[in-house]
Amino acid sequence: MRAPELLTCCCCCCCWLLVPVYGIHPECRFHLEIQKEETKCSELLSTQTEKYKACPGIWDNLTCWHAADLGETVTVPCPTVFSNFYTKPGNISKNCTSDGWSETFPDFIDACGYSDPEDESKVTFYILVKAIYTLGYSVSLMSLATGSIILCLFRKLHCTRNYIHLNLFLSFILRAVSVLVKDDILYSSSGTLHCLNQPSSWVGCKLSLVFFQYCIMANFYWLLVEGLYLHTLLVAIFSPSRCFLAYLLIGWGIPTICIGVWTAARLSLEDTGCWDTNDHSIPWWVIRIPILVSILVNFALFISIIRILLQKLTSPDVGGNDQSQYKRLAKSTLLLIPLFGIHYMVFAVFPKGISAQYQILFELCVGSFQGLVVAVLYCFLNSEVQCELKRRWRGLCLTQPGGRNYRLHSWSISQHGSESALQIHRGSRTQSFLQTETSVM
User: Fold this and answer.
1) Contact 225, 247 (CB under 8 A)
2) Which of 147, 163, 340, 364 could connect to 379 by a Cys-Cys bridge, CB 3.0–4.6 Å?
């Protein structure tokens, strides 16, 4: 096998092992890049006037060679399509002989450094990252679905706080589904795509990218809504229950508008391939700026919430019960707010000078398990959820044979104490509401 063919085959294989960022089949993406380079070469050669030289300009399926005189040596950089694979900026050459163009020299592998030992470790790294984030999204998906069912089944858990949690869970579920679908379907080796017929399937591919981008942005904005809700509870300027519609508009509406603008920008400025490249900066920033804004606002809310909690905890007006309540809320806030995208501040503010591998490992692996952690903190460790589950479990146990005497005994006790319990309930309704709305854990 000739060196260019060997290098092409190796690069196609390595495309399968890269982190799945693009929206089209990796092998087809490689061929698409080749087609782009061929088009650029054809346009370049058509503008040259030296058509009658000994060696006319050609495209050799990898590199563009301009026309040359007999005995002339043409040297060009390594093919740009392999920029993700070679490890040093080398050059390759051809001689113009009486028999035409000579073979390319030196060898592609020697000139471009494709056989660098670091490549094997990079491939292993990407395989490991893909396995970790696939596991993370799968576990998060199951835990979020379970948590959503629990919050929906028990009527006593129906309140503004849990409605917001449900929408946050849904955004994490959609994010996990969009990633897994993109990996399992668009990148499935069993469903081999014919690259020559790829443009006919670009409509569905573009729609999948639109859905993927929407899920990512909606997830960020529902994290922002959680921060806004906690901040509203502490400031208590108005009832947070009355602005639930505003929360819905922020969580689902803003991403809808931004993705609509991004789609229009793509159609007008960069309607190429499957919208997986970012050659034009405007569509890219249409998505990146709103996400950065949500991260920065959430970080500001985090600082403000910590400041308010510290003031309330050190205030002499805060009594015993209120003191314990604010301590619980402080602990919950410290645990939850960092999950609201605060860890993205590391690379949003300091993107340069940090290894790309560390960034990939941090964002993909940590982000994939984020849904699991949120489900555990918001649902499974929530004291109200645990009480409702225990109460339902006791109810199921009482329906079993042998539980009849216990039910009669419990009914007798409840009848004798109904009047006093009613008075206690009426006297603590206001305090219970505040505790319910602020009891995150």
Assistant:
1) yes
2) 147
Measured in degrees and rounded to the nearest 5, phi and psi for residue 363 equal -75, -45
Question: pLDDT tens digits for 51-100?
Answer: 667 888 888 888 888 888 888 889 888 887 666 666 567 788 899 988 88
Q: Which residue has the tokens 């922020």?
A: 250
Q: Which domain CATH number covers 33?
A: 4.10.1240.10
**260 plus 375 within the same structural domain:** yes
Largest distance between two CA atoms of the chain: 112
Interval 129-178: pLDDT, tens: 888 888 989 999 999 999 999 889 888 888 888 899 999 999 999 999 98
Other Cβ atoms less than 10 A from the Cβ of 107: the count is 17
Residue 419 located in a structural domain: no
- Determine, yes or no, domain membership for 406: no
- Whether residues 170 and 310 fall in one domain: yes
pTM metric for this prediction: 0.66
Residue 157 CA to residue 163 CA, distance in Å, equals 9
Determine the Cα–Cα distance for residues 23 and 14; give it in Å rounded to an integer.
17
Domain co-membership, 175 together with 279:
yes
Distance from the Cα of residue 213 to its chain's centroid: 9
Instruction: Name the amino acid, one letter, at 396.
Output: L
* Residue where the block lists tokens 């050190």: 314
Q: Are residues 97 and 167 in the same domain?
A: no
- Write a three-state SS string for 44-85: HHHCCCCCCCCECCEECCCCEECCECCCCEEEEECCHHHCCC
Domain around 43: 3-15+23-112
DSSP 41: H
Number of domains making up the chain: 2
Domain end among 371, 387, 403: 387
d(CA 119, CA 214) in angstroms, rounded, equals 34
Same domain? For 139 and 100 the reply is no
> What are 271's two structure tokens?
């309607």
